[in-house]
Amino acid sequence: MFVIAVICRVLILLFTSYFLAIEVYQCRKEGFWAHFSDFWNYLDVVPTFLIFTSEIMNITNGDYRVIRTLYSFTAVAMWLRFLYFFRIYKATNFYIKMIAEVIIDMG
């Protein structure tokens, strides 16, 4: 069972590294400030760093309550990121833009 858990953690870190590499490439291509002028790019970067942080804490036997909290924030960020794909449909486009504006105004 321990071997399967380690393999899953390694796969998670590999996939997360791939998405981080894509973000770094896009950031270099567009420029740092231009890349982060779009709200959706924050939702691409935040889960990546939360996953890395929580996995490193998990490997180093960090506080389990903190790790669970990081996993919770990661799940919320991933769901918000998932909303990005609903912008494609005309029926949901308005609602997704409205949710994004509310989140930006709250921050």
Fold blueprint:
Elements: H1 2-30, H2 32-35, H3 39-59, H4 64-83, H5 90-106
Helix pairs in contact: 1-3, 3-4
Low-confidence stretches: none
Strand content: under 5%
Q: Using DSSP, what is the number of strands?
A: 0
Mean pLDDT comes to 85
The computed structural class is mainly alpha
Order of helices and strands: HHHHH
Task: Assign an overall shape.
Answer: globular
Quick take:
This protein is an all-alpha fold and 107 residues long. The protein is 85% helix and 0% strand.
Name a few traits of the molecule.
single chain, 107 residues, mainly alpha, 5 helices, 0% strand, globular
Please characterize this protein's 3D structure.
This protein is mainly α and 107 residues long. It has one domain. Helix content is 85%, strand content 0%. The protein contains five helices and no strands. It has helices at residues 2-30, 32-35, 39-59, 64-83, 90-106. The longest helix has 29 residues, at 2-30. It is globular, with a radius of gyration of 16 Å.
